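User: quick one, sequence for these tokens?
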């Protein structure tokens, strides 16, 4: 790989990183109507899309310590968004599952974020939308390799 290619790739990576952070921050505003803070929403998302899991697995996925995750999960359980059941395979652990209310809340939030983004994309011209679609496909390929 040439030095020019490496520098260009680093520049693109830096721009994508910055754009991703700004995009998520702006879309997070749509979550304010859901009544959950970002850590709780993130944990709920992992449970909804990851299926039943232990608290330890959830803490590892969210890169937090188990006591922190315990507080988050307890708050989600109090709101009726997750259930905690004894793991039949290992009586020392608890399995966490999303309730129908938890799944609905998460999907409604996702729909709000997608709608807000779609509104901005709709304002682009046809060529820009096509370019963005192609970039999204390429980005999915790049992410698979990370």
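Assistant:
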């Amino acid at each position: 790989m040439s030095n020019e290619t490496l520098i260009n790739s680093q520049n693109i990576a830096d721009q994508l990183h910055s754009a991703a952070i700004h995009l998520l921050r702006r879309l997070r505003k749509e979550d304010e109507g859901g009544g959950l803070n970002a850590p709780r929403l993130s944990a709920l998302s992992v449970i909804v899309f990851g299926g039943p899991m232990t608290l330890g697995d959830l803490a590892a996925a969210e890169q937090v310590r188990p006591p922190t995750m315990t507080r988050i999960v307890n708050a989600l359980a109090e709101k009726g968004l997750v259930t905690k059941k004894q793991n039949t395979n290992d009586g020392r652990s608890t399995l966490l599952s999303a309730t129908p209310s938890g799944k609905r809340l998460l999907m409604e939030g996702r729909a709000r974020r997608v709608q807000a983004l779609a509104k901005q994309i709709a304002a682009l011209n046809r060529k820009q939308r096509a370019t963005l679609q192609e970039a999204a496909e390429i980005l999915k390929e790049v992410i698979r390799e990370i």
